[in-house]
Amino acid sequence: MIAESLTCQPALVSMRDLDVRTVEALIHRAEEFKHGAQLELAEPVFAANMFFENSTRTHTSFEIAERRLGLSVVDFNPQASSVSKGETLYDTCLTLAAVGVRLLVIRHSQDAYYQELLNQPALPVALINAGDGSGEHPSQSLLDMMTISETFGGFSGLKVAIVGDLNHSRVARSNMEVLKKLGAQVYFSGPEAWYDKRFDCFGQYLPMDELVDQVDVMMMLRVQHERHSDDASFDQADYHQQYGLTLERAKRMKSDAIIMHPGPINRGVELASDLVECPQSKFVEQMRNGVFVRMAMIESVLRGNQLGGLA
C-alpha cells in the first residue's frame, strides 16, 4: 500500500499541484486497483458528477470508479437543475453539499472554475476537476501517464510528441507539464496557428514528418470542431494529410512506439481509421486505465477530506 502522505489530497484540480512522487503514487495505486485491490468504506459517501459539457469516457468512467469503490452516485443533469434558472455554480454546489453530497466531480466550460469553489470554506466537499474549458484535464493526464508507464516502465529519456489542436487542448496543457517533470522529452506538432509560443518552455515544435520516426509516443489530439465553428476554410482531408497520423506516416514509426489519443477520435482527421485499434494503438487501453486512475484519484480526495471513514 502506498504511503498515505502521498495519496491524501484535499482536491485534485490541476497537474501543477502534483509533484513527481505524488503522480507516481497515484499511478501505482491505479495499478493496484487494476489488479484487484479493494477499498472498504466505513461510512457512506454520496457523489455527484456535474458535467456542464458533453462527455462519454470521462463521465462514465468516473461513475464506474465511484460505484466500484462503494460510493452512492447522485444523478445530476445540468439541463434539469436550477442552473437552467440562473443559479450560480457555487450555489448549486452549496445545495448539493447541504443535502449530503461529499464528492463533486465537475467538468465546466470556464477555465479554472474551481478557484471560486476552493476559496469557500463553507463548502465541505472533496473536489475533482474533470476538465475546465481549455485549461486542464488531470484525470486524462494521469491515465495517459499510467498507460505510458505500463508500456515503457518509466519516463526518463522517452520522446513524446503531442500533435494537433494544441491551443484548445486541456489534455496537452496537463500532459506537457507532467511529462517534463517525469523526465520525458516533449515535442509538439500540428498547425502552427494552433501553437502557443508559451509551450516552448516544455518542448520543441517540429513538423510532423520530422517527428514521426523519432518518437516513442505519438499522442494525437482531437480537432475541437466546436471551438473552430467560425473557420469555414477547415478541410478534414487536408488536415489529415498535413498534420494527421496517416497510414504512410505510421509505417515510419519505430517498431516499439505507441499511438495515443484522448478521444473522441475524428477518424480520418487526426488519425487514420485503420490505426485506431492497430497493435501499436493504446486507445482502448487508455480508456480501460481511466477507471482505475479515477479510483485512485477518488480514494486520494476521500482520504484528504477524511471521508468514508478513511484515515
TrEMBL record:
Q: Which pathway is this protein engaged in?
A: Pyrimidine metabolism; UMP biosynthesis via de novo pathway; (S)-dihydroorotate from bicarbonate: step 2/3
Which top EC class is named for this enzyme in its record?
Answer: transferase
* Entries under Gene3D superfamilies matching the protein: Aspartate/ornithine carbamoyltransferase
Q: Which residues bind L-aspartate?
A: 85, 170, 222
Keywords carried by this UniProt record: Pyrimidine biosynthesis, Transferase
The answer, when asked if Transferase is one of the entry's keywords, is yes
Q: What Enzyme Commission number(s) appear in the record?
A: 2.1.3.2
Spell out the subunit comment. Answer: Heterododecamer (2C3:3R2) of six catalytic PyrB chains organized as two trimers (C3), and six regulatory PyrI chains organized as three dimers (R2).
Name the record gives this protein? Aspartate carbamoyltransferase
Gene source species: Loigolactobacillus jiayinensis
